[in-house]
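#structure-requests
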Amino acid sequence: MTSKSITKTVHLLRAKNDGMPFDIEAKVRLARKQKSTVGDTEITFGAGDVVRIQHYREIASGGVLLHLAGYVPGERASTIAPQSNALEDDEGAYDPPQGMEYKDGEGFLLLKNHHVVFCSNGILINKANLYLAKLFKSCNFDSAETTFEIAAVGNLDKIKLLQQHGVSSILLSASAYALSVPERNAKNPLSTLLNTVSKELKALIEKDDSFTDQKSREDLIVNLELKLDGNTRASDAAKDCIEAMATEYIDESDVGWGEFVIVTQKGEKIRPGQVKLQKAVKVERTDKSVIYTSAWKALEEYFSELEHGMLTET
């Protein structure tokens, strides 16, 4: 079967426990000794879906590579009839071959000490984080070793720029549709503020019958600006508040706003792709799956690039 390339984003993340670096690589190595087969690593979630380690490799120079895959037991796959002459196609659902299940997402990780390089193809980092925590719990690890979190790593140069030049304003924009979806968990003051704004906008939009469909809401762009009054003449408390909000965004995986620009007091503009350490890469795929060796190669190359640039340490 021929393979095709697809663009994916790889992210540098960091495992932390109680705010301190957490050696997640060592824990995964220990877990693997207890659970050496694919079936041993299967963890069932509350919704009935299952995640497991599909492929596992230990890197000779240090580090572990994981390929996580998920499935829903008994789930059927819908089909459509191509070039149908019927007025409508009612579709059909088919069971997987006997003894098999349809794959439902995957994720790829490189773990080295407390560093995590991640690429998603259906399984998001929050799910991968929860899976590893449940895996460690099933291995009877100490409870303190199952409460870690995997968070984004900020570009240190951009963080220093914010601290040295200060923040003048934060510019956000999103479609009305994006703001109409259920609110996200508020992790910090910025999240709380944006959730409040989103709820108010959602209430206004829902009162207008002309914005009942998704397309109309996608076409309506909402802009929000948080700005200091007087810029450098603003109070120290106001300066500290807006700088904290800008810095906290670095650890937010998704605040729900499509565009996010931080403007310093000297006029520099910092965008999300510059704040978080991430990179778009080409990986090979077959059907809807990514070839795991291709994803692993991209993770290793990106981490090596970051190490050479001395961007992996705080």
